[in-house]
Structure formats: structure tokens, C-alpha cells
Amino acid sequence: xxxxxxxxxxxxxxxxxxxxxxxxxxxxxxxxxxxxxxxxxxxxxxxxxxxxxxxxxxxxxxxxxxxxxxxxxxxxxxxxxxxxxxxxxxxxxxxxxxxxxxxxxxxxxxxxxxxxxxxxxxx
Length: 123
What we know:
Layout: E1 2-7, E2 10-13, E3 18-26, E4 33-39, E5 46-52, E6 58-60, E7 68-73, E8 78-83, E9 92-99, E10 112-113, E11 117-122
Parallel strand pairs: 2-11
Antiparallel strand pairs: 1-3, 3-8, 4-5, 4-9, 5-6, 7-8, 9-10, 9-11
């Protein structure tokens, strides 16, 4: 089992920045990828970014590329999502997720999920 706890969400004006954190515990050594997803009201959960266990591989969706950066600190079992130049359309609940096995951007391929943290960007 893996437990994931997100933090760092909040209300920010357009153009501002936030850094989300995801603290992992449990059998994290078996998780090959950590990802961030988001879900806005009335919309499906969508992929934002992922990072491999060694940080050698990262990948972001086109909608956040150049604005959001994913990173991790394995000594702290924590994954981060630095979000810059935020836009109102970034408003959503942001979820941290973990998966074993191969690269994947589909939510159904992830094994463990956090409870989510709300990010609201005002115009």
C-alpha cells in the first residue's frame, strides 16, 4: 500500500505561482512513476505531469508545458509541482498519483491516489 497526501493548494491571482507537494509513504519503492492530475467541475480528470522514480524522465501535458515543473526529493519521499504563470483555466482539484510498471498518462493506469488539493486562479 502507498499513501499520498497533497498540500499547497489555494487561491491565487492570474499570473501568480503555487507549489504543490505530495508526501508519499508506504511501499513507495515499488512505484515507478508519480504523476499529477487535475479535475475541474464537470470535466474529466486530466493528466498534468509525471516523473520517474530516478527523476530521469519527466513529461508534461501541452497545456502546462513551459509553466509547470514536476520534481521530486526521494530522501523526503515527496513530489512537487511548481506552477507558474497560472491562468483561470488552471482552476481544479489537483491530485497526486502513483503507479508501478511502465510510463502512462491515463488515470486508470495509476494505482494509488491522494485526496486532492484545490487550486483556484482568479482573473
